[in-house]
Known about the structure:
Layout lengths: L5 E8 L2 E7 L4 E7 L4 H11 L6 E7 L4 E9 L2 E9 L2 H4 L8 E9 H28 L6 H14 L12
This protein binds zinc ion.
Amino acid sequence: MADGLRFDWELSGSGWATCRIGDGIAQWKDVVSYCTDALADLLHGVAGLYGPTPVQRFSFDLEPAEARWVLRGRGSDVDIAIHHFPDMSASFDAPDLDGALRWSSAQPRTRLGHVVVEAAQSVLRLHGEDGYRAKWVQHPFPVAALQDLRRLHLRHDGCALPHDVATP
Length: 168
Ligand SMILES: [Zn+2]
């Protein structure tokens, strides 16, 4: 199994975020628009892996392309796949496999939960809630979604990596 999953979410300009993911074998980067509450969708999607629904889907709007993340829980592991569709307004109901597979990896759920929580906390530390809202305009920082995923990760994953003190 590929090891060393890394993930980063960077507010790269007003209304845009750069999303990077890599597993030591391949990396992928998307520039995501504020048309959707993208960071909240990501946090809710990963948090969903701790519930009864083992497949989670959410999409980032790349204006106009769609980047659809599909997370399939398999025991303590997760298959992560990112599919691209050329036009988000047209592909909303399209099957996953109609989109081009841009990146995929199998990872322990604990690692995915950990890096997503850490990335979101970094965003909050760097910008604060006011700074985030100023850049993401349409949506506030998803405080509750971050707290929820952090709680699930700490409670259920037995993660041995260090964790920052929760912010806020
Ligand atoms: Zn952790």
